[in-house]
Amino acid sequence: MLKEIKGLHHVTSMAGDARTNNHFFTKTLGLRRVKQTVNFDAPDVYHLYYGDEAGTPGSVMTYFPFPHIARGRPGAGEVGTTLFSVPEGSLGYWRERLTKEGVAGLGEAEAFGEKRLTFKGPDGDAFALTEVAGDERPGWTGNGVSGDHAIRGFQGVSMRLRDAGATSELLNFMGYEKLEEKNGVLRFAVPGGNKADLVEIETLPGADMARLGGGSVHHVAFAVEDRAAQLAVRKALADTGYQVTPVIDRDYFWAIYFRTPGGVLFEVATNEPGFARDEDTAHLGEALKLPRQHAHLRSYLEQHLQPLED
């Protein structure tokens, strides 16, 4: 069993309109835009990162906004809901705030004894705010949400699978332990993790497979401290039979990817070097940053990428 994985690093999803996406995560949810860069494989498309003040691993939601993307089709083989952690007693504030902002799909739920506020993002993305006791991570307060209510980061993710067996075994191998099962949902956590350390599996045997599109989670990334830990994880996964990519430099972390038995794309990302490697922490996300191989496109991209601010 692996000991290097500490919980989530980031969650990356697909969107349509970049400005709408930016407004939702910064103005509505109060997160900080910690980086604006572009997709390594499609440089005419943004890659936007939102999180806490520093973009701490376990807090960062990222998006590829493709202007004309079709909506995804929910189903099995995907992350169904991304779970954010908020302080106990704050859901009333968030219900009022999201109602005022016209957010769709608001609903109240309880899972594993915790209160949740469920809602939809602009592209139909499924989210939940969970009241989590004892989460002392500082939330970002620069966009008008007080420290008493601010999102602390991820609590985890909830996956929808046709069969939970093989993915459960994989999570166990990755260092996750099964906590409990309730109403057909399995809950796993990393002991001593980074607080963004829950994974839930909902089993839907007869469900159609999901279709990737706007509002879909593209992949979920798990955090390791450094490149040495990542190489150890990569070797262990490969020795177990998983087809794992080589290490890829993503400027703000190094990444490896592999497809899980249930169909979800997993990434293992390093906590180093972080988002301050090319701009001061006080000014994260303010300027367009380009991967080295796309630096020659700056003039074109600055003219053609949609301005993010209203």
Automatic annotation (TrEMBL):
<dbReference type="InterPro" id="IPR004360">
    <property type="entry name" value="Glyas_Fos-R_dOase_dom"/>
</dbReference>
<dbReference type="Pfam" id="PF00903">
    <property type="entry name" value="Glyoxalase"/>
</dbReference>
<dbReference type="InterPro" id="IPR052537">
    <property type="entry name" value="Extradiol_RC_dioxygenase"/>
</dbReference>
<dbReference type="InterPro" id="IPR029068">
    <property type="entry name" value="Glyas_Bleomycin-R_OHBP_Dase"/>
</dbReference>
<feature type="domain" description="VOC">
    <location>
        <begin position="7"/>
        <end position="132"/>
    </location>
</feature>
<dbReference type="InterPro" id="IPR000595">
    <property type="entry name" value="cNMP-bd_dom"/>
</dbReference>
<feature type="domain" description="Cyclic nucleotide-binding">
    <location>
        <begin position="77"/>
        <end position="122"/>
    </location>
</feature>
<protein>
    <submittedName>
        <fullName>Glyoxalase family protein</fullName>
    </submittedName>
</protein>
<dbReference type="InterPro" id="IPR037523">
    <property type="entry name" value="VOC_core"/>
</dbReference>
<feature type="domain" description="VOC">
    <location>
        <begin position="153"/>
        <end position="271"/>
    </location>
</feature>
